[in-house]
Amino acid sequence: MNTKSSLRLFALLFTFSFSILTSSAAQKTDEFTTKSGKKVTITCIKHASIEINYNGTEIQVDPVGMWLKPETDYATFPKANIILVTHEHKDHFDRAAIHEIRTPATSIYVNQAVFGHFKNGLVMRNGETVKYAADITIEAVPAYNTTPGREQYHPQGRDNGYVLTLDGLRIYIAGDTEDIPEMANLKDIDIAFLPCNQPYTMTVEQCVNAAKIIKPKVLFPYHYSDTPVHKISMQLAGSGIDVRIRDYK
Fold first, then answer.
1. What is the pLDDT of residues 88-122, one digit of tens each?
2. Can you give the pTM of this predicted structure?
3. Alpha helices, DSSP H only, in the chain?
4. C-alpha 211, offset from chain centre
5. What are phi and psi of 12, to 5 degrees?
6. Count of alpha carbons within 13 Å of 86, Cβ hemisphere only?
7. What is the pLDDT of residue 79?
8. Which of 5, 123, 156, 227 has its CA 20 to 30 A from that of 139?
């Protein structure tokens, strides 16, 4: 094959791969089924904001509204039964968005720093577990930076990741973290959300390493800004992990 043919083939392959990734990122919802046959619908909102509906229970993760593009009008969303906030940074904690989806019956779970700003919600510390219902548990897990010079972004012990167990389906929402040793303690994870945007969270290589440690069935890279997350799919090819790219820029 001559040089021109090789370049033409490379361009075609790149265009094909890019179109697949673009189409994948455009998809907003993913559906899963629990062990009892109940439906879990996960909707990509943006960046670190996720909507999860489990059998009619509405769960919002790090809802952020109008200031972070694309603007999100949470007044158009169903009222939440559960709101999880990982930490106090403005791309994760937005009291106006929370106000739009909360009711007096909404359970809000936060770290201590968010509570200090918000004076509302139940504080969860790393390692604590709450049983919201017979078939719903919430566990707060560590989320922090380890790279020298970056520890100040997310110091150890301050922020939360969360493991949601919905009728046996285990969803790990990592929050802002690097590939920390505590990830080895996470077992039987069905779905993982792993952040990927240095200097604040992980590099592509760290995200791949974290996925290999956790071994989720499905991986959603999120909180990725301009990181080339298609490289995660490439590096995990053949691992048995279903990497799904959605628009979590």
1. 999 999 999 999 999 999 999 999 999 999 989 99
2. 0.90
3. 3-26, 95-101, 112-118, 204-214, 230-235
4. 13
5. -65, -45
6. 31
7. 98
8. 227
Is the pLDDT assigned to residue 52 strictly greater than 60? yes
| Two tokens, residue 43 | 């909707």
Record the tokens describing residue 213, joined without a space. 């440690």
Q: How far apart are CA 249 and CA 230, in angstroms?
A: 13
Structure token digits, residue 89:
């940074």
| DSSP states along 80-109 | PSEEE---SSTTT--HHHHHHH--TT-EEE
User: Is 95 in contact with 89 (CB distance < 8 Å)?
Assistant: no
pLDDT in tens, 154-185: 999 999 999 999 999 999 999 999 999 999 99
Angle value at C-alpha 150, between 60 and 138, nearest 5 degrees: 25
CA 225, 160, 103 angle in degrees (round to 5)? 90
